[in-house]
Amino acid sequence: MDIEELNKFQLVLLALLVSFVTSIATGIVTVTLLAQAPPGVTETINHVVERTIQTIVPQTTAPASNSTQTVVVKEDDLITGSIASAMTKTGRVFGGTATTSPVVGLAAEIAPGVLVTDSAIVSKEMLVSIGGVNALFSVSRTFPDMGVAVLSPEATSTALGAPFTVGDTGAVKLGSTVTAILGVSNERVAIGSVSAVFPLTASARAIDSNLSAGNITGEPLIDIFGNLVGISTGVSHAAGAGGTFISASDIVVALSAKPSTASTTPAVK
Question: pTM score, two decimals?
Fold first, then answer.
């Protein structure tokens, strides 16, 4: 059969056959030459083939990325965690120097080794149990306008845990959740919300909440993050019953000011 008599389909088949035979012949020749080539030449050819295959056939598995994972924290978890931490920073104030004395109120560690409580419940010397430590404290300063007393340990070797982080009263929003630590003989709390923030004295503000009146003072008030935002005193109770607290950040400001004669006079019973 003359090649000129072939149709287009037959010409395509013939071209494929020639290409197939040529490829086989080329492969045989290549294998024969590689077998006779020095090792260095063989390694170079292998590297070229591998790089070519990697370029034509990309990786199907995506590389690991440094993506961040969002963790959702529930408000209940924040509150319960904050309460557990606050318990270790809240002290029980005894009416005497022995554990057999009645507990008259609570105190909050507002700075390392410094407690604040209601000045109406303290005497010259009293026992405080805080963070598993029982130690004698004495009144180092008082702020009569706020009804706040500052307690310092009598022994320099008294080591307490980390104090509260004090929250800014200016950032307290109406309706925000707050918790009062109330436990005297046992661990007890009350959870409510902020209903008002108002000036109480020339140097202190009061935080009012919808919490029911308590029968003790010195109670710490914390936000959902465990920040100390208030302390209950006789002065705050008189201003708005048991749900009103002296601003903790205003107490810090008063502590940082130079002591005056009025503020350094302990409330001695």
Answer: 0.69
